[in-house]
Design brief:
The structure is a single chain. 53% of the residues lie in helices and 3% in strands. The protein is mainly alpha-helical and 118 residues long. It has a domain of 74 residues. Strands 1-2 form a two-stranded antiparallel ribbon. A hairpin with a 2-residue loop joins strand 1 and strand 2. 6% of the residues are buried. The mean pLDDT is 81. Bound molecules: zinc ion (ZN). Zinc ion (ZN) binds next to loops. The site of zinc ion has 8 residues, from loops.
């Protein structure tokens, strides 16, 4: 009984409804920075251009971008459980609100749907 109570408390404290979204954002920002630094290094001649290496590098980037897009597309809204960034064919990666229930990103989960007066 006590262990269940402790586990529930622990779970409640450790659970961040936006964890998935935060991780995605961090990966996105980090990879954009790395890509910029790499291209800058090549452009400035710090890294010698290697045609084969560049091709592998570009393929890796395309793969990463694709995976990021899929992960973002599949990211769920912690409030309504549906896709946060996509509704049907509509896909807005930069949206600040859930496309289904209007839940604001990184905000406390609202109790009622569409609390936005504006
Ligand atoms: Zn939602």
């Amino acid at each position: 009984m006590l262990s269940i109570g402790l586990a529930a408390l622990h779970w409640h404290e450790m659970t961040d409804p936006w964890k998935h979204h935060r991780i995605l954002k961090r990966i996105g920002v980090t990879s954009a920075l790395l890509m910029f630094l790499t291209f800058a290094s090549v452009a400035l001649g710090i890294v010698n251009e290697n045609p084969r290496g560049s091709r592998i590098f570009i393929y890796c980037w395309m793969l990463l971008v694709l995976v990021m897009l899929i992960l973002t597309h599949e990211a769920r809204c912690p409030r309504c459980g549906r896709r946060f960034y996509a509704r049907g064919l509509d896909f807005r990666q930069m949206t600040k609100k859930c496309l289904h229930c209007g839940q604001k990103k990184y905000a406390e989960l609202a109790a009622t749907p569409n609390p936005d007066p504006g």
